[in-house]
Protein: Electron transfer flavoprotein subunit alpha
Amino acid sequence: MIQVNRSGEVWVFAEQREGDLEDVAIELLSKGRELADQLGVKLAAVLLGDKKAEGLTEKLGHFGADKVYLVVNPLLEHYQTNSYTKVIHDLIHKYEPQVFLCGATVCGRDLAPRVASATKAGLTADCTDLQIGDHEIRRTGEVHKDLLFQIRPAFGGNIIATIINYDRWPQMATVREGVMPMPEPDGNRKVEVVRDEAHLGTQDLALEIINQHIEEKKVNLKGARVIVTGGAGVGSKANFKKIWDLAHCLGAAPGATRAAVDLGFIDHDHQIGQTGTTVRPSLYIAVGVSGAVQHVAGMSDSKKIIAINKDPNAPIFKVAHYKIVGDLNQVVPRMIDSIREK
Ligand code: FAD
Structure:
């Protein structure tokens, strides 16, 4: 376990693939910037990879990093659990950050627990928010200042839990993709690059990667300005065509609730919510969606929400800006007709 270092930096794992940063790394920089400013410390990105990664340091600066810890080694070309854990563990021991954040991606969900275990730190997985705050231990009256409040849904999404870790450092969290806003880049920001070594041998690689196939997502929900989501209330896969048609008229992406996915109306790539994608479009139209907490967790930050439901007491109306109480089989075709007339 490393000593508590109150002046330690805030670190963000700059996840990259083939020399391209993952969006979540940039989202984390925006939150990391806020946390670092509140703590009065530097924000650093941790970037590992082969030569291709070197081109990313400037971009990390433009998106808010003061510093980049850069480790370049041919053995770091592809993410691998053992090699990445070893390098990050060594960096943490050397530079003692107080916060270390990873995206809750496939890679981040694998890496963060290994790093937490290697450094004997705590870890909160799948956070939806992070804040800085003070905490008093009731038993002793001891007050811990400037802790990282790690906020995430718990008990199946029925409560929002705030988790703190006051005696194990760094404070570590993985953060859901899409929950933090994308910052605007500032091309004038300069970044300090700290190059470090990877003490690795081929024995640190558990896998030999022979071929890589990247499955394309069928829909880009995160980038969509308008989303039309269908729920179980749509009734059948055939009737889900109404959702596709409305989405098509509006140039929108079709989304779905988990119930609609489970019923086979649409593919899982379209699922929005706690176990799907988190979205924040300009316009979100929820059709035949009840508004369960697990769904709302993934869409409530949308700028404008229109809900269509035949039940006037449906919980979705609590988060909707515009409420249409009615049968979707009548409302949706009329919406399509009036949009087409324009
Ligand atoms: P229902 O709750 O069945 O609602 C259907 C709605 O359609 C009703 O409000 C009804 O009034 C309305 N309706 C019916 N007919 C019509 C009509 N003709 N016209 C207008 N309205 C009509 N859910 C998610 O969506 N995303 C997640 O990521 C997710 N993750 C989960 C994780 C966990 C651990 C758990 C336990 C659950 C999760 N769920 C998730 C499931 C969630 O709890 C709900 O079951 C789900 O969101 C309900 O989907 P729904 O609103 O489509 O269906």
Notes: The mean pLDDT is 93. The domain at 10-204 is CATH 3.40.50.620 (Rossmann fold).
